[in-house]
Amino acid sequence: MKRLICGGIVYDGTGNPPHVADVMIRDGVIAALGPDLPREDAEIIDAKGMAVTPGFIDMHRHADIAPMLNTQFGALELTQGITATVTGNCGIACVPVREPWVEEYRDFVSPIIGPAPREALFPNYFAYRAMLEKAKLPIHMGFLAGTGAVKVAVKGFSSTPYTPDEMRAAQDFVREAMDAGAFGVSLGFMYQPECYTKPEEQVSVIQPAAEAGGLLTTHIRGEGNTLVASVDEVINIAKRAGIRLHISHLKATGIKNWKRTIFEAMDHIERARNAGQQVTADFYPYAGGSTTIFSLIPPGVLREDNSRTIAYLSSAAGKAHLRREIEREDPAWDNMALSIGWDRIVIAGTELPEHASFSGRTVQALTEKNGYDHPSDFLADLLVSEAGKVGIIVLSMDPEDVDAVARKPYTAVISDALYGVSDHPHPRLYGTFPHFLRSFARERHVLSIEEAIRKMTSLPASVLGLDKMGMIIPGNRADMNIFDMEELTDRATYEDSRRLCTGMARVLIGGQDALLAGQMTGTQTGQVLRMKSSY
Using CA atoms, how far apart are residues 132 and 143, in angstroms rounded to an integer? Predict the structure, then answer.
């Protein structure tokens, strides 16, 4: 099959200025690029005056089980121009999941990846890959081995160090993941049980991924007062393990850290890069983040596992302990309640019908409305009643800091979209990529349009090791977006977040129409990706 995209304004993904050109597609691959290409025997796609870009690559999206749970999976992604994504981020994944921790782990991950039935939790990586291959994907998907999931599969939510046998079991899981095609490993130092993992243990756990040439992505231990130390920690882990490092959602949280610590952290990253270490990072183009309610609980209040934490917080002693701990600074933990205030912490999603009205409201407002003396008491009761299955939005960043991260040549754009059930999700689930293009490039000129597109295409492809994606060049896969640069826009806001983007005229995956005039075509040409995929 031959298709010719005629007269479009081609942003090739390299960061070079755009140019008017035709793009010839043959059998799903870009065959030629240039002016006035021959039209014989080709289906013509008129793109005059339209932007033609590589498909956008979201290398950090928590869509692990979305293809199984949602028959409309792909709509949120394709209307943004996302043609490929990677799951298993932040150490959190739907694989490996083993007894006796299945139920507890399912409760833990549901605000992130969605409420998972047992058949959506997989004992090994080959089973997970088989599910993706059977799912008839509307977009490409790849995966990382989440070392938090690995740790739970090996030893539950225990705070104790790995025993030698447990370490071998963890390494076996990572080795299996790489054999199954994982891009590498992700860790989530902010979450249980990885918050208990020592750097030397993590070096050992990820060694099989390093030996296979994989990538280490990191949700660092702290993004507020401990940001710089946390960045240094993962730089040192990656250096000791001999693995490429990619720091997830680089940011500085906490009002007193704004306009200061992010620059210190980036200085440390650049020092490592200048010394020859392979270090990159990513960011989402919003000043608010989203996570699980457990991230608000001080380490001293957390018990051996989540069920014990919930039981403890249901007691008067546990509530009193939470109030004491949440009112004090902890140099080793980012206390969001103190650093940004309860009026900047928003409930994003709950499961119980009686709490449906909580979505979109701040903890401070809900504390007052429901007659609590202190926000920590409301927090404890909500966590207990919902078994911890609550998503939150934290308005924790300074927009100027986000702009500074966006300008760095080594930072890619991600959504970090969560798929937990929510009436009020973070707008990044619906609008990240058009939002970035509109706000950061077209309107505010934080960076050029061509550089913005590079951060959504060739840069993430390079970090992941995808050598046939991310650029419009002959020989690459024909995954492309066609749209009017002035018309493509995001519509999701913090106040009204469940709104699809508009203006994406056409999305091609493997040269076939996956989205046309804003509607999915039903074409399911997505593939399960792996490093150095040659198609």
Answer: 10
Q: Convert the pLDDT of each residue in 133-169 to its tens digit.
A: 999 899 999 999 999 999 999 999 999 999 999 999 9
Q: Which pLDDT does position 291 carry in this prediction?
A: 87
β-pair type (19-26, 2-10): antiparallel
Peptide bond into 115 cis (omega under 30): no
pLDDT of residue 359: 87
Q: How many CA atoms lie within 13 A of 32 on its CB side?
A: 13
State how far the Cα of 501 lies from the Cα of 443, in Å rounded to an integer: 17
Instruction: Give the residues across from 61 on adjacent strands.
Output: 417
Q: Are 289 and 393 in contact (CB under 8 A)?
A: yes
pLDDT at 534: 41
Those residues of the chain that have pLDDT short of 70 are: 533-535
Query: What b/e readout covers 342-356, taking b as 16+ CB neighbours within 10 angstroms?
Result: bebbbbbbbbeeebe
- Give 496: exposed, middle or buried? Use CB within 10 Å, 0-12, 13-18, 19+: exposed
Q: Which helix (H) or strand (E) holds 84?
A: strand 82-87
Residues 379 and 358 sit within 8 Å (Cβ to Cβ): no
Please check whether residue 314 is in contact with residue 306, taking contact to mean a CB–CB distance below 8 angstroms.
no
- The beta strands (E) that lie in 201-268 are given as 215-219, 244-247
Domains and CATH numbers, the chain: 56-291+396-489+496-516 (3.20.20.140), 298-393 (no CATH)
Distance between CA atoms of 98 and 75, rounded to whole angstroms? Answer: 32
pLDDT value, residue 533: 53
For 179-216, give the DSSP string: HTT--EEEEETTSTTGGG--HHHHHHHTHHHHHTT-EE
Distances (CA, A) of 4 to 52, 400, 468, 473, 511: 12, 42, 19, 14, 10
Structure tokens at 404: 């500074």
| DSSP string covering 111-153 | HHH----GGGS-SSHHHHHHHHHHS--SSEEEE-EEHHHHHHH
CA distance 303 to 454: 44
Question: What letter represents residue 330's amino acid?
Answer: D
With tokens 């021959």, the residue in question is 38
Of 249, 206, 210, 205, the residue nearest 230 (C-alpha): 249
Taking alpha carbons only, the member of 16, 22, 178, 194 closest to residue 91 is 194
Whether this prediction's pTM lies above 0.90 is answered by yes
Residue 25: its H or E element: strand 19-26
How far is C-alpha 465 from the chain's CA centre?
17
Which single residue is written with the structure tokens 């993706």?
Answer: 132
C-beta separation of 44 from 6 below 8 A: yes
Which amino acid, 384?
V
- Beta strands (DSSP E) in 327-455 are 345-349, 391-394, 411-413
